[in-house]
Structure formats: structure tokens, C-alpha cells
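User: quick one, sequence for these C-alpha cells?
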């Protein structure tokens, strides 16, 4: 296929995913019959996994994952090591004699399935379509690239939602499972401390101090690099925060771009405690991702909680000025969808984040 054909294929596949994906997720999550709902979740997870299974070398890290699965970890060309949970999944897929396509499918299916289950647990309290649309436009395409970490993030977000429901032990299990897939997920354990602080202390003080500490860290990247090195026990991830490309100008520009999301989360801080918790976590995650480059991979563990938090924000009319003024949820949702579409175009098409454009399905023939 020539260059023009590949570009046409890319826009057809990605356009179909953006248009059809949220609708399929919405309809399956809207089903009230328990059996049909479960079939819907499984079916949608399968369908959305197919483009990821067939992605070939689309995405920055796909070649590394292909090499890792085909030839083993001795060819892993990074300073960090492969986590045991991910190694276990590879071994299980090898034992089942799955090809690399099969392995990519398993990783994608688990990731999407866990997110679908997460949304299913809160579907009566959120704007389902808004959450699904944000998931597809602002998270799904990361899976063409950092599939190991997005799997870990799915466990983290599920754990955060469980924690917001006061289910501490199950949340710890989810955080541990995520950490076994990607070490960056250990940052999720900080969420437990934050949850108990919100539960036991003055919420306004906790929120202000948390956001202030987050801002201090991101504007003093050496402190954040040291913290990352301590949490992850490797200089590989601490190096994300200590690069010369992380500048104050970049942080501020990213803050401006993310300002609509930040505003929605700030409005959520006046809601019930579980919504406040998820929104505060997502805010901290957004602050971390504003540093740009690979730092977003660390912040993604928290910012992905927005998949649920934005759904909470757009489920009700937004009241302000002591309840005397309202912003209707319908126009606010339309603006949110337009914003997500613009972010998708900027990140995926214009900035080529993760090198997911062009979409080149199937692996090229390999030498015998």
C-alpha cells in the first residue's frame, strides 16, 4: 500500500473508532439486563481490541513489545526491567501458543474490559457517553503505544473507584496488580493516604495543600525526579522529570490547554466525597502530565481517573454563585465533546504523539 493509501486507511480506521467506539460503549453500559450487559461489555471489549491487535508496528513502543514477546527479555533495550505481572502474561500467552497478534489482543482486551467494568460500577451516577467519548479520544489511542502501562492504569483507575466507595482492600489489590504490570502504578498507593485525609480532615485544607504540593513539585523538577527515583527504585523514570525539555513555559502552556478539564474537576470539588476524591486525584494527574514528554506516563495513573470524574461533572447541571446560577449540562456536554475531539486531533494527528499515525496494520514479513 502506498503512502496515500496508508493515510486514507488511518483516517478511516481512527474515524470509525472515534465515532462508533463511544456509541458501542454507551449502549452496552446502558443495558439494564445483567446478562445482556455482561455480553455487551465483553463484545465491545473484543471489537475495540481488534485494531490494537492488528496494529503491527504502529506506535512508538510496539516494536519493542513485538521483540520482547518474540525473542525474550534479553533483547529489552532499556535500563528498566520488565515487571513480573507482564512477564506472567507473556508466559501464559506463550503456553497457549498465541502469536504476537494474540498477545496484543489479550493485553488490549484486558485493558478495555477493566475500564468497561469500572464505568459499569458507576454508570448510574455519571454521564456515560461523555466518559466513553473521553476514554476513546483521550486515552484509547495511548494503547497503540504504551500498552503495558495502559493495562496498569486500568487497574489503578478501577482501584481508585473502589477506594472512593470505601472498598480499601480490593483497591489495594488493584494497585498491586497494576504495579506488577508497570512499576509507575505504585504512585496509586499515595491515593490511599489522600482518601483518608479527605475522610478524616478538613476537606478544603486537604485539597489546597495537595494542589499546592503538586505545584511545588512540578515547578521544582529535581524534587520530583528524586521522589520518582525513590518510588520506582530506578533512575530510568526519575530521568523523565529531570530533562532539559521540562520548562516552566511548557508547564504553563499545558495548563492552559488543559484548563477546561481543570475547571470541570474544580467544580467537582464541591460534590460528594467520592467525587471530590476522584476529581482531586485527576487534578494531581493533570498537573504531572503538564510537564510534557514522558512525564505524562507517570501522571496518566492519576489523570485517567478523569474518565470517571468528567462523567460525574456532566451528569448534573453545574451550580455556582451559591446556587443562584446554573449552567445546563447539555450545552456543557457538547462543549466537552468538541474539546475532546480537538485534543484528539492535536495529539494524534498534528503532534503525532506516540507515533500512531499512520496506522500500518499487520507485521511486515520477517526473515526466516
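Assistant:
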Amino acid at each position: 500500500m502506498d503512502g496515500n493509501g496508508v493515510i486514507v486507511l488511518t483516517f478511516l480506521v481512527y474515524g470509525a473508532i472515534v465515532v462508533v467506539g463511544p456509541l458501542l460503549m454507551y449502549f452496552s453500559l446502558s443495558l439494564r439486563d445483567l446478562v445482556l450487559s455482561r455480553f455487551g461489555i465483553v463484545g465491545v471489549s473484543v471489537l475495540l481490541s481488534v485494531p490494537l491487535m492488528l496494529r503491527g508496528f504502529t506506535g512508538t513502543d510496539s516494536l519493542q513489545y513485538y521483540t520482547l514477546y518474540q525473542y525474550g527479555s534479553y533483547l529489552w533495550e532499556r535500563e528498566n526491567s520488565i515487571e513480573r505481572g507482564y512477564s506472567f502474561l507473556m508466559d501464559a500467552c506463550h503456553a497457549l501458543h498465541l502469536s504476537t497478534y494474540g498477545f496484543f489482543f489479550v493485553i488490549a482486551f484486558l485493558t478495555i474490559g477493566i475500564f468497561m467494568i469500572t464505568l459499569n460500577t458507576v454508570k448510574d451516577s455519571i454521564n456515560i457517553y461523555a466518559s466513553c467519548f473521553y476514554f476513546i479520544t483521550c486515552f484509547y489511542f495511548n494503547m497503540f503505544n504504551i500498552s503495558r502501562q495502559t493495562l496498569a492504569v486500568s487497574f489503578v483507575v478501577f482501584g481508585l473507584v473502589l477506594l472512593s466507595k470505601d472498598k480499601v482492600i480490593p483497591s489495594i489489590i488493584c494497585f498491586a496488580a497494576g504495579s506488577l504490570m508497570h512499576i509507575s502504578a505504585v504512585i496509586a498507593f499515595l491515593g490511599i493516604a489522600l482518601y483518608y485525609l479527605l475522610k478524616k480532615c478538613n476537606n478544603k485544607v486537604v485539597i489546597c495543600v495537595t494542589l499546592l504540593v503538586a505545584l511545588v513539585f512540578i515547578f521544582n523538577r529535581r524534587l520530583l525526579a528524586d521522589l520518582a527515583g525513590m518510588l520506582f527504585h530506578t533512575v530510568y523514570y526519575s530521568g523523565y522529570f529531570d530533562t532539559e525539555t521540562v520548562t516552566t513555559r511548557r508547564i504553563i502552556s499545558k495548563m492552559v490547554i488543559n484548563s477546561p478539564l481543570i475547571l470541570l474537576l474544580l467544580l467537582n470539588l464541591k460534590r460528594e466525597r467520592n467525587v471530590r476524591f476522584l476529581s482531586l486525584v485527576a487534578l494531581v494527574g493533570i498537573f504531572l502530565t503538564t510537564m510534557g514528554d514522558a512525564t505524562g506516563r507517570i501522571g496518566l495513573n492519576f489523570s485517567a481517573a478523569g474518565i470517571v470524574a468528567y462523567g460525574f461533572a456532566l451528569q448534573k447541571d453545574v451550580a455556582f454563585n451559591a446556587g443562584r446560577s446554573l449552567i445546563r449540562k447539555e450545552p456543557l456536554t457538547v462543549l466537552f465533546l468538541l474539546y475532546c475531539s480537538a485534543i484528539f486531533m492535536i495529539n494524534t494527528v498534528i503532534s503525532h504523539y506516540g507515533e500512531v499515525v499512520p496506522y500500518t496494520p499487520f507485521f511486515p514479513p520477517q526473515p526466516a
